[in-house]
């Protein structure tokens, strides 16, 4: 019988309240230490280290000549996956593509800042990006869809997926199906810290990339943090987490059902039901055993560890305002607003990476196929980062264009500021010296 952690929020002291904001990844210093030799081995030994870590850490039958997925493996994946799953992947990709096409910025905009002087932005795809698709405590064709589709919409020319191999040396079949349907042709069988190192440094087989995106376990998070000076590591997406916020308008059993969604990812996940309704909290507690009875043994084990531990459970607040305050301080990756009037609450919550409204929008639907991206910042990073998007796959260049008639007005001011800052060359470049070189007007 699992003892679910229960907090009567208004009775907690400051330190206890602060402790509720912690995630398993808040302190990953031990992982940082442990990944260091893995990163160094990949840097110096390349494919040899990749294959060795595949054997040692993934218990996978990988050799140096089998790191890249072949066309035959892609073809076999389509035969191994059922029609229904392929249909669900196709449905998801279509919605995710529609959503992300809306996000795609105009290739360029220019505005006339002053008469005859123009400024704007131009967006071009990043030349190479690696997509991390986890595998271990689950397989993730959905993460393949969520990372591949925006990258393809953005037009990244050189895309590669890195994902841990299974003991048979192969890649999860649905991941390969999703990759091909989304338009990604290159998949490497490498996961964990060694995958991040492989795309940061490059190996004989694996091309180096400018950026890596995608969620992962603390091994992946630690490797990304360690190599952030060598490769762009994008938004920080670690172990999954959710807050289910409920007012007093729905049954607590529904809140319990959805609380278990992200709690079942692994013992390192975080999941809270936050409510000011004692009735909802009691109904949720009472419903959990029934919900657990319908789950697989491994998922019961993971979710009960989360809900009875330091990063999960039920938080009973004394008012709806206190619930809002806690949620904004926590800045969850996923937030569900369980209410018959979710829009009444929406304006009060500013710190959450994904906000799902009402009883028909459970996290599962958004995880797999609604359209918005389910690769999201964890561990309070929702305070500064948003979900993975098309803009993560492009970079922005500013464009400026001053015409001859507009030039004198700008040169005068630039000259003044250059003198003040003490930059003589900057000043000369906009002085009368320049005029002697400029094409004569008229
Ligand atoms: N934030 C998001 O958007 C999002 C989305 C999906 C999943 N997730 C999270 O991603 C994570 C996926 O984790 P996972 O474990 O299933 O897959 P993973 O691919 O992230 O990690 C597995 C890899 O970790 C490495 N590893 C395992 N034990 C190790 C050890 N002792 N030493 C060194 N390396 C070791 C291995 O290389 C293995 O391939 C979960 O925490 C899940 O909650 C997050
Ligand atoms: N919950 C994950 C994002 O935090 C996404 C996912 C994929 N599969 C299951 N869940
Ligand atoms: Zn999930």
From TrEMBL:
<dbReference type="InterPro" id="IPR016161">
    <property type="entry name" value="Ald_DH/histidinol_DH"/>
</dbReference>
<dbReference type="GO" id="GO:0000105">
    <property type="term" value="P:L-histidine biosynthetic process"/>
</dbReference>
<dbReference type="GO" id="GO:0005829">
    <property type="term" value="C:cytosol"/>
</dbReference>
<dbReference type="GO" id="GO:0051287">
    <property type="term" value="F:NAD binding"/>
</dbReference>
<comment type="similarity">
    <text>Belongs to the histidinol dehydrogenase family.</text>
</comment>
<dbReference type="InterPro" id="IPR001692">
    <property type="entry name" value="Histidinol_DH_CS"/>
</dbReference>
<dbReference type="GO" id="GO:0004399">
    <property type="term" value="F:histidinol dehydrogenase activity"/>
</dbReference>
<protein>
    <submittedName>
        <fullName>Histidinol dehydrogenase</fullName>
        <ecNumber>1.1.1.23</ecNumber>
    </submittedName>
</protein>
<keyword id="KW-0479">Metal-binding</keyword>
<dbReference type="GO" id="GO:0046872">
    <property type="term" value="F:metal ion binding"/>
</dbReference>
<feature type="active site" description="Proton acceptor">
    <location>
        <position position="333"/>
    </location>
</feature>
<dbReference type="InterPro" id="IPR012131">
    <property type="entry name" value="Hstdl_DH"/>
</dbReference>
<dbReference type="Pfam" id="PF00815">
    <property type="entry name" value="Histidinol_dh"/>
</dbReference>
<keyword id="KW-0560">Oxidoreductase</keyword>
<dbReference type="InterPro" id="IPR022695">
    <property type="entry name" value="Histidinol_DH_monofunct"/>
</dbReference>
<feature type="active site" description="Proton acceptor">
    <location>
        <position position="334"/>
    </location>
</feature>
<keyword id="KW-0862">Zinc</keyword>
